[in-house]
Every structure is written in C-alpha cells, then in structure tokens.
Amino acid sequence: MVLNIANDTEEIILEKNDSELVKLTLVNQNNFLYIVKKYKSKLFNYIRKLTNVREEEIEDILQNIFIKTYLNLNDFDNNLKFSSWIYRIAHNEVINNYRKIKARPQCNYSLDDKEILNISSELNIEKNLDLSLLKDKFKSILKDLDNKYREIIILKYFEQKSYEEISDIIQRPIGTVSSLLNKARNEFKKELIKQNIKI
Amino acid sequence: MENNFDKKLLDKIKEEKLSPKPRWYFIFSNYFFWSLGILCLIIGSISVSVIIYLINNNDWEIFSQVKKSWTELLLLNLPYFWLILMLIFILIIYYDLNHTKRGYRYSFLIILTSSTLASIIFGVLLFKVGFSQYLDDVLGEKAPFYREIFNPQMNFWDQPKEGRLMGLIISIVNENNFSIIDLKKNEWLVNLDEDLPYHREFIIIGQPIRILCDIKDENLCNAIRLMPLGPGKGMFKRKHIISEDEFQPMPIIPNF
User: Fold this and answer.
1) Are residues A182 and A153 in the same domain?
2) Which of B8, B18, B98 is opposite residue A71, by nearest beta carbon?
3) CA separation (Å) from B180 to B191, B221, B236?
4) By the 8 A CB rule, do B214 and B153 touch?
5) pLDDT tens digit sequence for B124-180
6) Residues A85 and A123 in one domain
7) pLDDT tens digit string along B1-25?
8) Which of A106, A98, A85, A83 is nearest to A147 (CA)?
9) Which site among A75, A84, A163 would you substitute to test the B interface, given the most B Cβ atoms closer than 10 Å to its Cβ?
10) How many structural domains are present in chain A?
11) Domain end residue (candidates: A103, A132, A154)
12) ipTM score of complex
C-alpha cells in the first residue's frame, strides 16, 4: 500500500505511533518533522541534563542526532521502542561529543518539581525539605557525579525510563543496568549526606 | 530552543541530499556480524579439538617416570597457541555479538560461558570425527615453526640427554634392536630389554615413535617405554627430515 499523507491533517499524523511515523518518513522525508516535533524537547532536556552545555551547542548535538536518526531509519527495529532507539542515538552522540562538551563552559538548567519529588521519594529524602534548596543541591551533585552514574539517574528518575528501556538505550544487559543504578543511588546518597540532607 | 530548528534541519537534509541508508545495508551488516560470530565459533571449536587431541595423547601416566615436577611438566606441555587462539576467538565472539541488534542484552559472563560451551561441544565432535588429527598432521607436515608454535610436546620429546627421544623407525635389526632417525637427522640404535613389557605392535618401519630411555652410549638408547607418536607425526613426512632412500631396504615386520 502506498502511504500518502497529502490529505491527512497534521493532527491525524501526530496521533500515529512512532513506527507509523517512521514508515511515513520513508515515503516522504517531510514527515520526518513529525518525529522531530515529538522528540525535540524531550531530547533537548535529556542532553542538557547530561552535558550541561550551552543551548546553541545542544542544538548542534540535537541536529546531529536527528540527522543520524534519519539516515538510519531503515535500521529501526520494530521490536524495540522508537523512543529507546532515538535515546540510544542521543546517548552515543553525547559520548562522541564528550571531549568537546567537557572542554566547554557549563551553564545552568532547571529541574522541575515533579523530577525532584520523584528522585526524593526514591531516595527516601525527608519530605519537608525546601524544593528550591533540593533543586540546587541535586544539580550540584549531578554535575559532579561520574558520567555513567549521572546518565543512569537521569534516565531512570528524570526521563522515567524502565530498566529494559535503559538497557536498550545504553546497550548494556539489564543486570548491569540494575547494578549501575544501585551504585549511582549510593553515590548520590553519599553526596546528599555530605551536603547535610537527611535521608 | 530556536523556533526555526525544524526548518533548518529539514533544509540541511534537502540541501545535502541526505536519504536513509538502504535496508539491505543494515541486513548485510547484521548478517556480516552473525557470520563473523559463526566463523569465530568454528575457529574456537577447531582450537578446542586440537587441544583435546594434544592432551589426549600426552600419556600423563608416564610423567611419573620423568624427573620433573607436575607443574613443570604441565607448563612444558600446555598447548599455549591453541589455548590463546581459543580465548581470542571467544573474546571476538563477545565483541561481535555486541554489534548485533540484540547482543548487548547478554552479559559478558553469559556470552563467555555459552560460547566456551559451544566451542567445547563442537570441538569434541571435531575430535571424534578425526579432524584434529588430520589438521595436526597437515600442520606438522607443512606449517613453519610447527614445534615452536603449534605443538610444544615436540620439544618435550626431543630431549635425548634427559632420556626422551622421538624419531622415525628406519630399520629393524632384530627382535630387540631397531634404529630410528630423529628430527635433527641423528640415527639412534634402540635396544629393548627382554624383561620389560613393551607394546611392540607399532615397531614397524616408517612409524614415528616416542621413547623413554637411558642413553648408554652415543646414539645408543636402552628403551624403558615405547609409545607411538601422535601429534606431530606429520613432521616426519617433511622431505628435509627423511627421504625414501634413507629407509633401509629391509621392509621386514618381525613377528615378535
């Protein structure tokens, strides 16, 4: 069947699932914009937390991610979640840019309340603490955390990914993800204690 | 984020005439990694089969008659080349599987254990059908540095001063004496003690043989034990070691 979106409205297309969007893009490259629209902000925030670099640089990285996604669309495996696949490309791109990113000055980003509450409850942090104080502490701890621990915490608590999704993104076995997350939690807790946060 | 990010991205794709890589490229790449994995498994299995062949022909029971410690004997006889080859190819299988679509889901330990087990199973099968013996014979006959690389047992058995001799039977003098030629083209007269229980069925001209012995005189050895030479016998087919004319015209197989 020839897929043609000429008569479809934007709303209908946006309701389509990722696999269908991939198929539509392979027919007409303009449809790639729907994938871009769907993932642009999510990936932007993910990269920002992961790298802590300037907005313009994040956009460069993001552009590379989308170009690689586009070039490799035929490699997308329908047994995998598209979101895991595109996050994997983002993860690899950030690693590729690691040296460049590391050498650049860092800037601020914001964590939203939901993200803070999510990680606080997971780490059993005292509930009555001031959220804005926690935000600052969390950002400072995340900034100093080892890359592998930072990424897994971001994926699990900020991006709300499951173990299986994280395994598909960082391309490690689920057992490794689980032990990495445990170590990351412990490192995070250690830093919280150092900063006098009660857990 | 810039509002025109989407437009810039699409313009870049159009200007640079980018298009998704064809499906066959990824199918080929996936098949390539699987084929490489299978090839590595075959090489690993071949290594295992030769290791089994070498160890199986080591005659561990005679080591009590050799004046060396077990550790020393083990280190002198381990088939290092094949063990290293097996390990290298098992590691390549791990690296290779990580490049297949789902290979990353399996831990190093699972891949290591399963590929080692598969190599052992196929290695045993190859050994049972005689492939390892065939390969060793071919390597013995043709491969350069055979005794240095492929079969350390050759050096172990080529130590006349320590009472270990290896050679090809070139003539049978009488019931208790025959002569052999070693890899350095030295001829030895082997004397059999009537009181010792030898296996004599392989005392045949042209048979490569290993002998545990006392060296009594120059090029004269009193055999304590006789064994046919298994791994490495191909070396005695090399033309520079022995030519047809060096066999004595006495193709007698005595009836002991």
Assistant:
1) yes
2) B18
3) 11, 10, 11
4) no
5) 999 999 999 999 999 999 898 898 889 888 888 888 888 889 999 999 888 889 999
6) no
7) 656 888 899 899 999 999 999 999 9
8) A98
9) A75
10) 2
11) A103
12) 0.80
